[in-house]
Amino acid sequence: MKDPHNHAKVGYAMIVVAASLTAVALLALAIGSDVLYADNIQRENQAHFNECKANDFKPDGCERYWDRINNDVSGIYVDLEK
């Protein structure tokens, strides 16, 4: 059998895998103390949306929802005249 000489490709692949695992580990260390990091972000966004919904999406900061309301999918219809 011939030697395939693909040791360099395998070596580079191992380096890429090691680098990606290192990136995941650094990310885990960065947010490791707050295991519910994503959950907290979602709760804050949901609270902001509910506050905007209660105020008919008029206050500052609620403009980001304007393109997602007043359609059949959302079921939320609000008069957005300024």
Secondary-structure topology with pairs:
Blueprint lengths: L6 H25 L5 H18 L28
What features would you highlight for this structure?
82 residues; mainly alpha; 52% helix
User: How many domain modules?
Assistant: 1
Helix tally?
A: 2
Major β-sheet profile: none
What's the average pLDDT? 86
Unreliable runs: none
Could you provide a short overview of the structure?
The chain has 82 residues and is mainly α. 52% of the residues lie in helices and 0% in strands. The termini are far apart.
Report on this model:
- The protein has 82 residues and is mainly alpha-helical.
- The protein has one domain (7-68).
- It has 2 helices and no strands.
